[in-house]
Every structure is written in C-alpha cells, then in structure tokens.
Amino acid sequence: MHERKDFWDKNAGRYDRFMRNDRAAYEKMYGLIRPVVKAKTVLEVATGTGLIARSIVDAAAHIEATDASAKMILEAERGNQSAKLHFSVQDMFRLPYAQKSFEVVIASNALHIVPHPEKALQEIRRVLKDDGVLIAPTFTHAGNSISGKAKAFFMSMAGFPLHSRWTSEEYLRFLRQNGWAVQKSAVQKASFPLTYAEYTKSEGPDVVL
C-alpha cells in the first residue's frame, strides 16, 4: 500500500497531463455517469486529481471524493469551485463512513491498480445503499493491442502499480464473482480499452451499451 501511495504522490503534478490523451473517452464517460448521479449522494474512491468528480458535480446532490495520496488530493482541491464537492485523504479499504451512506459509489481506474481488489469491493458494498449503484470504469489492459501491451510493460517498469491485467470479459466476470450484477457495460477506445460498467448489489439483466 505504501509503495502505491508513494507512486501517486510522486506523479500527482503530471497526472492531468498524462490523462489528456484520453480526454474524448472521459467526456463520453461523464455523459454516462451524470444521469446516474443526478440528485444523488456520491462517494468517489481513488479520485486522483478529481477529474471525474469536478466534471459531474453539477448533476449530483453531494460528492465525497477520496484518495490515498495526499498530494493527489492537494491537486484536486486546487480546481474545486463547488460547495457540493468535498475532497479528503482516505484509504479505500478502510472508509470512515457509516454503512449504507451513499446512493452511488464511483471507483474509476482503481480496481486494477490495488492488491486484493475484492477487499475494496467489500468495503464499497458496506457504504453503498442496498438499491445503490457502483460505477467502476477500468482500463482492461489484457485486451489491448501489441503496442498497448508494450506500453503497459514499460509503465510497469517505471513503477506503475498494475496488479490486475483483465480483458473486458474477465473484468466483468470478476465483478459478478464478487456479488455484483452488471447492469450496463461498454468498452470505449482509449490509450487502453476502457471498460465502463454500472453494477448493483441485486441480481438483474445485463444491458450492453
């Protein structure tokens, strides 16, 4: 955990520049997220520099955006203009919120970079209302092209904490195996294939966008 936090602390200042390559994919993702969070109480774990939180806060009732990296949170707070958005340093494996506190939880590009992602899902389940929605878009590196896999290799060599290399199908199956029902899913073109998905605690039909 400390190695992961140190990596993001060191790279907080350049994170937004790195993510510009995927601006188009993220804009599409914001469009998918806004209707889900409309007038809802939202928790975002692994918010990074707050790109998603700041882009959807106009639709939400309130957003608690958290990250394990204090320097990422400092970057996020610089651009915060909304009273509905609060940033704080938190460990996604030990969240300080009561059970069933949030109507929506967002974990974007987080589950593939942490050890034991199933434990993070357990904590998310605890703080999510029974009828709530988990939005968990994730880069699914294993489904990428040869050049993309080479890029992932060099990122790993540079210290990028990539713990899980899933294809889109493997990622969705992982969530199902951990007690989540996939309600909507779509694969978007980005630096790496970006599998957008919405999940609920209760079983229901899958809808592929």
Detailed description of the structure:
This protein has 209 residues and is an alpha/beta fold. The chain has a single domain (2-208), classed as Vaccinia Virus protein VP39 (Rossmann fold, 3-Layer(aba) Sandwich). It has helices at residues 2-11, 15-19, 23-37, 51-56, 70-78, 117-127, 146-157, 168-177; strands at 41-45, 62-67, 85-89, 102-107, 128-135, 138-139, 181-188, 194-200, 207-208. Strands 1, 2, 3, 4, 5, 6, 7, 8 and 9 form a nine-stranded mixed beta sheet that branches. Helix 6 links the parallel strand 4 (102-107) and strand 5 (128-135). The longest helix has 15 residues, at 23-37. It is globular and about 40 Å long.
What secondary-structure arrangement, pairings included, does this model have?
Elements: H1 2-11, H2 15-19, H3 23-37, E1 41-45, H4 51-56, E2 62-67, H5 70-78, E3 85-89, E4 102-107, H6 117-127, E5 128-135, E6 138-139, H7 146-157, H8 168-177, E7 181-188, E8 194-200, E9 207-208
Parallel strand pairs: 1-2, 1-4, 2-3, 4-5, 7-9
Antiparallel strand pairs: 5-8, 6-8, 7-8
Provide a compact summary of the structure.
This protein has 209 residues and is an alpha/beta fold. It is 37% helix and 23% strand. The protein has one domain: Vaccinia Virus protein VP39 (Rossmann fold, 3-Layer(aba) Sandwich).
